[in-house]
Amino acid sequence: MPHPARDDLLALAERALSGTFEELAGPHSYDAATAIDYRQAAVLALFTPVQQEGQHDGAARPGDQSSPAVGRHQADLFLVQRSPLLRHHPGQIALPGGSLEAGDDGPVAAALRETQEETGIPAGQVEVLGALPPVLVPISEFVVTPVLAWAPSVEPEAPLDTSEVLHTLRVGVDDLLDPRARATVWIGGHGSSGFRLPSGWVWGFTGNLLDHLFTQLGWAREWDPAVRHTMSWDEARGAQLLGHVPSPE
């Protein structure tokens, strides 16, 4: 029997294909003239049925943020937390993905390759549902294509890019959408949609993209954007994680 969350994701992908998807506005809105000078990248929004008690897929599952069930949208989402030792975007929680490489046959191929490298989830276990319209990340000058995907189950292999990713997070959609775990994250005079997890906040581009994605899916729960989390630069760089990773040689 088809999973209702997959049905919603597929319907959203079909809206994007037909041109009826409401594109992301604000600082990440797409502008063709600006995108000409930006590098191409892709991210994978990979969903899977909620992990049952006793299952283990090698991904760290945040706990103790349970929220009331929202009915039909029982799904988990895969995220990655970048190493706090990196020079660029250290410690940040993001969707798996990265730059297109010469051997990639477009954004979908790049998103699948990067996901396998970062999480160990092979492309053969992933059902690609479709791509959403591209969005911009001005701070790093990327034009990013979000790709929607579904996996009925996952059996990850060892990730290849262990120097970049601290760990994979398998997060319940209900936990992400819990209004108690939502806030507007402020740093450097700018605010973004935030989702609180035990190992940090999902904020910035990823926070804004996920907030828009859940809204377009009809999964969003009402939360108060007036609630703020003021983030220090140390927190943004993942300083709180340094005790959990080996020191650089």
* Overall pLDDT level: 88
SS class: alpha+beta
Shape: globular
Share in β-strands: 25-35%
CATH architecture of one domain: Alpha-Beta Complex
**Largest sheet properties:** 8 strands, mixed
Determine Rg (CA atoms, Å).
Answer: 17 Å
H/E series = HHEEEEHEEEEHEEEHEH
Percentage of residues assigned to helices:
10-25%
Show unreliable segments. 64-70
CATH topology of one domain: Nucleoside Triphosphate Pyrophosphohydrolase
Can you tell me the CATH superfamily of one domain? Answer: Nucleoside Triphosphate Pyrophosphohydrolase
SS element count, helices: 6
Query: According to CATH, what is the class of one domain?
Result: Alpha Beta
* Beginning-to-end CA distance, first to last residue: 51 Å
Describe the overall structure.
By secondary structure, the protein is of the alpha+beta class. It has a domain at 4-51 and 72-173: Nucleoside Triphosphate Pyrophosphohydrolase, CATH 3.90.79. Helices cover 22% and strands 28% of the residues. It has helices at 4-18, 32-35, 107-119, 173-177, 204-217, 233-236, and strands at residues 39-49, 75-82, 93-94, 97-99, 127-131, 135-137, 142-150, 165-172, 182-187, 190-197, 200-202, 228-230. Strands 1, 2, 3, 4, 5, 6, 7 and 8 form an 8-stranded mixed β-sheet that branches. Strands 11-10-9-12 form a 4-stranded mixed β-sheet. The longest helix has 15 residues, at 4-18. The chain is globular and about 45 Å long. The N and C termini lie far apart (51 Å).
